[in-house]
């Protein structure tokens, strides 16, 4: 790549940030729960974690969860229409089964979906608008997490009832946007309770792109002797009209063309329900038992607008699961030994309603059900060897079994292959080990080696095209090495630098002929930096910077892939820089600069997207204690850009970025 940004040496970034270090007192501890399903201080972990607390979530007022997560180093989420998105965490932006299965999306440590039934847009089922905290782990998850925690995970955490308080909020803005939410937490006659409701509507800035989304979340916490319990439930309802790609070189620069929707009949309607009971029982001074039992139900109707058939797809699955662990904690150690299990019954139906043409026949393309079982055992621990040195490690052994039932005729119809009934099993082993060394009171060094795994998605195994093979696939494995440092700068500032290298094998993708390829390899190397630095009493600067190179390590003639080619949709440089200024006690202004470097739009590295820079502004003013007015201007300079650029079927295509938009709102809280 040839842009000015890509000519920079990542070592220069390390040196520049290191110059900021001086003697100072450390800031407040940041508590995370994603490392081991319970609260831990971030600085004790060898795993890099980004934490978005309630104050930052409130300041962002996200219209899409990408506005939150893209503030983390190593994260690049392409926003589609409405709630749609494609994710990258220490990776290129993935599509298909890789996009669904390479990242684990959680609510309070429990996956939003069963591992083999993931969705590339799976974050739309998270109740992010009511979250008390959101955490991102970059790189493979620990032993407490199984399949799909490959490149990283996102954990959306329910507010603590005793800390939530009460809030009512209303916001309106450009393109017919209206967002409202209300919640309350506190003591009830049965324990500490929380209930929250969020609703969102937008007409869409593109034609026929309306969105309606509702969320409901409740929790009730209590205790019975030495047993602490928490009952939690979430509901999500989505009704979305979908705007598709615009085609043509730099089509996103044409405002009128960008607003058009080539397929006004495209839509996505989905429902998700989850309930879980979390238990924590003290057994003795050092021992306790912890875990959760849970159920989930997901269903979605989706017009496959990106395929010539424009078939209607209906999918869904229901699950029951158990997480459990024995935990031993002392002043110098923490050890977990656990067992998890999950049963899922899912289905997929694809039906073409328009008349048949070519290899796309009218009627049923697929109609199948899959019963899935997952069982796992794991061990994970952290041990303080001295005042300054600690070790951590663990491993997870997991067995996944799919029992597939074809509910229509076996064999080939048109371009579709429907396998006969079969069963498939996959065994994965995921170890990790890390070390944390406090070199001084203000400088900490850490390193970690880990393996991430994912069993194939059910759609990868059973939703096949004619000419594809049936079975014979191995789980993907990603081996990761990383090392970094955390430093305390002046005025309680924080800096974290992490370098990583990852090799992934048994990579599964579909080539230009639509055939499965399951023996591909890729490499991923990069440096991540994050900074939070107060500059006086009223100004704080924060930044996340990523330099990364993602390359193919195999050849594929149909896609034009050669070893050393850059993986498409993988910018070399990303950064997000924020300045929060409080000119008075009652007011706050945030300016945000987002940079996305150029990247290749195809695997052969023949097509490029030039990248973009965006400026966002947010402000809040307190009229009286507990009553705030707030506003935002997104894309202040009204730049024409692409949220996603792709090159397929001999043509450029884009998800055009939204033009300048304005919103204003009022918030009542206590």
TrEMBL record:
Q: Where in the cell is it found?
A: Cell outer membrane
Name the predominant localization. Answer: membrane
TonB-dependent receptor plug domain location: 44-152
This protein's membrane topology, according to the annotation, is:
Multi-pass membrane protein
What does the UniProt keyword field contain?
Cell outer membrane, Ion transport, Iron, Iron transport, Membrane, Receptor, Signal, TonB box, Transmembrane, Transmembrane beta strand, Transport
Record bears the keyword Transport: yes
Q: Which CDD domains match?
A: ligand_gated_channel (cd01347)
Name a GO molecular-function annotation.
siderophore uptake transmembrane transporter activity
Segments forming domain TonB-dependent receptor-like beta-barrel: 239-636
- Per the record, GO CC terms? cell outer membrane
Keyword Ion transport among record annotations: yes
Family of the protein in this entry: Belongs to the TonB-dependent receptor family.
Please identify the protein, giving its name as recorded: TonB-dependent receptor
Source organism per entry reads Marinicauda pacifica
């Amino acid at each position: 790549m040839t842009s000015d940004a890509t000519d920079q040496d990542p070592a220069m970034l390390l040196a520049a940030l290191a110059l900021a270090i001086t003697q100072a007192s450390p800031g407040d501890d940041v508590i995370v729960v994603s490392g081991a399903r319970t609260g831990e201080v971030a600085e004790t972990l060898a795993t890099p974690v980004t934490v978005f607390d309630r104050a930052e979530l409130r300041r962002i007022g996200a219209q899409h969860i990408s506005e939150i997560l893209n503030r983390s180093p190593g994260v690049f989420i392409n926003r589609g229409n409405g709630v749609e998105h494609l994710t990258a965490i220490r990776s290129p932006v993935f599509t298909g089964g890789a996009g669904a299965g390479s990242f684990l999306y959680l609510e309070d440590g429990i996956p939003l979906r069963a591992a083999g039934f993931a969705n590339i847009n799976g974050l739309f089922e998270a109740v992010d608008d009511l979250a008390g905290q959101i955490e991102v782990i970059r790189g493979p998850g620990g032993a407490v997490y199984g399949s799909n925690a490959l490149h990283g995970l996102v954990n959306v955490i329910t507010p603590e009832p005793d800390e939530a308080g009460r809030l009512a909020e209303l916001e309106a803005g450009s393109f017919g946007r209206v967002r409202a939410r209300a919640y309350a937490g506190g003591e009830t006659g049965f324990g500490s309770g929380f209930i929250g409701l969020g609703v969102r509507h937008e007409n869409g800035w593109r034609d026929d792109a309306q969105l309606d989304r509702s969320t409901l979340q409740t929790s009730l916490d209590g205790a019975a002797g030495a047993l602490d319990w928490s009952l939690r439930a979430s509901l999500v309802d989505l009704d979305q009209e979908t705007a598709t790609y615009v085609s043509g070189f730099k089509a996103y620069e044409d405002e009128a063309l960008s607003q058009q929707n080539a397929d006004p009949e495209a839509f996505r309607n989905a429902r998700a329900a989850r309930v879980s009971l979390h238990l924590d029982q003290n057994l003795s001074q050092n021992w306790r038992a912890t875990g959760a039992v849970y159920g989930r139900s997901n269903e979605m109707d989706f017009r496959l607008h990106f395929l010539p058939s424009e078939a209607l797809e209906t999918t869904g699955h229901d699950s029951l699961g158990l997480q459990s662990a024995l935990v031993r904690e002392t002043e110098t150690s923490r050890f977990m030994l656990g067992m998890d299990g999950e049963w899922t019954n899912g289905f997929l139906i694809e039906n073409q309603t328009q008349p048949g043409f070519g290899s796309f026949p009218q009627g049923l393309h697929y109609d199948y059900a899959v019963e899935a079982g997952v069982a796992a055992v794991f061990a994970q621990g952290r041990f303080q060897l001295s005042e300054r040195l600690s070790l951590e490690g663990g491993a997870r052994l997991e067995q996944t079994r799919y029992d597939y039932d074809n509910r229509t005729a076996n064999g080939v119809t048109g371009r579709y292959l429907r396998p006969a009934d079969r069963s498939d099993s996959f065994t994965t082993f995921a170890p990790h080990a890390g070390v944390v060394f406090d070199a001084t009171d203000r400088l900490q060094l850490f390193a970690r080696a880990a393996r991430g795994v994912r069993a194939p998605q059910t759609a990868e195994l059973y939703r096949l095209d004619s000419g594809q093979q049936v079975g014979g696939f191995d789980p993907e494995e990603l081996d990761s090495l990383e090392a970094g440092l955390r430093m305390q700068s002046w005025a309680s500032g924080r800096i974290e630098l992490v370098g990583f290298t990852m090799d992934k094998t048994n990579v599964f993708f579909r080539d230009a002929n639509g055939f499965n390829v399951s023996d591909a390899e890729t490499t991923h190397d990069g440096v991540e930096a994050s900074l939070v630095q107060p500059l006086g009493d009223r100004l704080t600067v924060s930044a996340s910077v990523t330099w990364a190179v993602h390359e193919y390590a195999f050849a594929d003639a149909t896609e034009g892939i050669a070893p050393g080619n850059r993986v498409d949709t993988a910018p070399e440089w990303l950064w997000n820089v924020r300045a929060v200024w409080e000119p008075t006690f009652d007011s706050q202004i945030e300016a945000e600069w987002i940079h996305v470097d150029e990247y290749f739009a195809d695997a052969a590295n023949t097509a490029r997207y030039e990248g973009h820079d965006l400026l966002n502004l947010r402000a809040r003013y307190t009229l009286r204690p507990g009553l705030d007015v707030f506003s935002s201007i997104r894309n202040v300079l009204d730049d024409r850009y692409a949220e996603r650029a792709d090159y397929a079927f001999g043509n450029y295509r884009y998800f055009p970025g939204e033009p300048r938009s304005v919103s204003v709102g009022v918030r009542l809280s206590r």
